From TrEMBL:
CDD domains hit by this protein: CbiX_SirB_N
Domain of life: Bacteria
Originating species: Chthoniobacter flavus Ellin428
SUPFAM superfamilies referenced in this protein's UniProt entry, alphabetically: Chelatase (SSF53800)
InterPro entries attached to this UniProt entry: CbiX-like, Sirohydro_Cobaltochel/CbiX
Keyword Plastid among record annotations: no
Keyword terms: Lyase, Metal-binding
Name under which the protein is recorded: Cobalamin (Vitamin B12) biosynthesis CbiX protein
Length: 274
């Protein structure tokens, strides 16, 4: 994309008060974008940790500001929390001599399909996809309805490519349950990709317990928990099971963030100057 040396980029994540790994991918992607020198300033901001959404605009010197939510789907946080905390009036907010441009969340980008396929291939190298069941795992429950919608969309997109024998949705807290993966999968190889922004207790502990490849530890994620991704394949319930880390840890998310900025410019070029 075109360099924007006089503009600032703010990448917004959820964050966590108990899990440092929650914000790690957001900081990693910000560091990569800053390294490329595309923007004059690059910042992270979070709902549940520092720097907070209410602080971040005070840190920015530029008058032209792009905000990209590092979220899997549109929902309460992208539609309500972030606009409220940053006092945004819409996609373009003019305030105090500044122009704040609110981009689409990363999970809406068409490249999510490509990144999920990439992650699945990386975690199970050499495994024939025509003998593999691929699961895209979301959280589920009414509190995360839009996340489930996003996961279903990606399953449809991947299935349409005809790469894997079957592509399935599964959830932690609603049907079809990932705990019953062996009842849903018909193939001898099973690949599990969590459709989350970051690794944390869901990917280190909750999903592995539901899969049957780990037992509950009842504590914060540790170095031992993180080894869960390094022991593939798991021989379980008569299948070879491959478990990937969350999709949001994929380094190419930095490119997706920049592409969401470019997409904003393409749509709103007539409304604001670049």
């Amino acid at each position: 994309m075109t360099a924007k040396p006089h503009s600032a980029l703010i990448i917004v994540g959820h964050g966590s008060t108990v899990n440092a790994d929650s914000s790690a991918p957001t900081f990693d992607h910000a560091a990569e974008i800053a390294r490329r020198g595309v923007f004059g300033e690059v910042y992270c901001a979070f709902w549940k940790e520092e720097p907070s959404l209410r602080q971040v605009l005070h840190m920015v010197e530029a008058n032209d500001i792009y905000v990209v939510p590092n979220f899997i789907s549109e929902g309460y946080f992208t539609r309500t929390v972030i606009p409220r905390e940053l006092e945004l009036s819409g996609p373009v907010t003019q305030r105090d001599g500044r122009t704040i441009k609110y981009c689409e969340p990363v999970g809406n980008h068409p490249r999510m399909t490509e990144l999920l396929l990439r992650r699945a291939a990386e975690v199970a190298p050499g495994v024939p996809p025509e003998k593999t069941s691929l699961f895209i795992v979301g959280h589920g429950t009414d509190l995360n309805e839009n996340s489930a919608v996003a996961a279903k969309r990606e399953v449809q997109n991947i299935a349409a490519r005809g790469v894997y024998a079957e592509v399935l949705n599964a959830y932690m807290e609603e049907d079809p349950l990932i705990a019953k993966w062996d009842e849903h999968a018909a193939q001898p190889n099973v690949v599990i990709v969590p459709f989350f922004i970051s690794d944390g207790l869901h990917s280190y502990e909750d999903i592995p317990v539901l899969l049957g490849i780990a037992t509950e530890s009842g504590g914060a994620a540790s170095a031992t928990d993180k080894e869960i991704f390094r022991h593939n394949p798991y021989q379980l319930r008569g299948r070879s099971l491959y478990y990937a880390s969350s999709i949001g840890t994929e380094p190419l998310f930095a490119d997706v963030i920049l592409e969401q900025v470019a997409a904003f410019d393409a749509v709103h070029a007539a409304t604001v100057s670049a």
